[in-house]
Amino acid sequence: MRLAQDTGVVLMDGHGFDAPEWSVRVSLANLNADDYIAIGQRLSAMLDEYAEVWKTEGHSDK
């Protein structure tokens, strides 16, 4: 939900498409190649933010 609210990117749960449980699905039929770069960058940035919060809460040895 946060990815969609913050960036306008909507990904579907890949597990429902017979993919691994912790995967996401992006339709290749509807976007230009450059759109996938932007989606990857936005998703990566959001996950980096979550990782930083997790580290600051004392869940990391670093």
Describe this structure in words.
The protein has 62 residues and is mostly helical. It has two helices and two strands; from the N terminus they run H-E-E-H. It has helices at residues 2-7, 33-59, and strands spanning 12-13, 24-25. The chain starts with a helix and ends with a helix. The model has no long low-confidence stretch (mean pLDDT 84).
Layout of strands and helices, then pairs:
Elements: H1 2-7, E1 12-13, E2 24-25, H2 33-59
Antiparallel strand pairs: 1-2
What would you say about this model in short?
With 62 residues, this protein is mainly alpha-helical.
Characteristic key phrases:
single chain; 2 strands; mainly alpha; 62 residues
How many H/I helical runs? 2
What kind of sheet is the major sheet? Answer: 2 strands, antiparallel
> What spatial order of strands do you see in the largest sheet?
1-2
Class by SSE composition:
mainly alpha
Total strands: the figure is: 2
Shape: globular
- What percent of residues adopt helix (DSSP H or I)? 40-55%
H/E element string?
HEEH
- Spans where pLDDT lies below 50 across 5 or more residues: none
Distance between the termini: 29 Å
Percentage beta strand: 5-15%
Radius of gyration: 14 Å
Mean pLDDT: 84
